[in-house]
């Protein structure tokens, strides 16, 4: 079964709408419950006594109420109203065990950008700052997809032109930035590098991490080009940090690239 692509106006077939029980189990990180539902055990409870949530689920603690209205056995290809798959949900909540199990059953979910925003599961994990989930997704992709598809996934842009690395940088998730900088340091369609994104948002820790990793992994000329690089509107990372009043980010950048 094919999932409707991002931005498509076609309605989701009724049989591919995600079961509410399945959504709740995935959101909370109940791996056993997810696969019980996928196996057709529709009478199982969402929180069985012998099912332990992932650490992320224990910390999250959100209470959500849904009615259980499904057609029986669930499918791993079901999507939410926003066209998010089970892997999008697990990645966004940082449920590493569930991510691994889902990928072992269907590795094609790794590169799915079916969500209405064009986000892949990697985008979801990066945006939420789940560095361990980012690391797990990259590891699973390396083991399960061809090199060209892996590169496309790592550098893939969502509907707004952001890569997973840009989202991690913009939201100040330093550890996730470091994970992604090691495998895919790239530029978005607007000319904004991850450094631009972190600087504009004022995330000094992410700025520091990006610069440190660049120093360790790229040649001096490329490092200078990155630090002084301009986006589509002619702004460097330092200009963006200064314009938006992010003094700590400005200080970080002034130490390495004091330019006009």
UniProtKB/TrEMBL annotation:
SMART domains registered for this protein in UniProt: ANK (SM00248)
Protein name stated in the entry: Uncharacterized protein
Record InterPro entries: Ankyrin_rpt (IPR002110), Ankyrin_rpt-contain_sf (IPR036770)
PROSITE patterns linked: ANK_REP_REGION, ANK_REPEAT
Pfam families assigned: Ank, Ank_2
Entry keywords, A to Z: ANK repeat
TM spans (from-to): none
ANK repeat feature ranges: 117-139, 160-192, 233-260
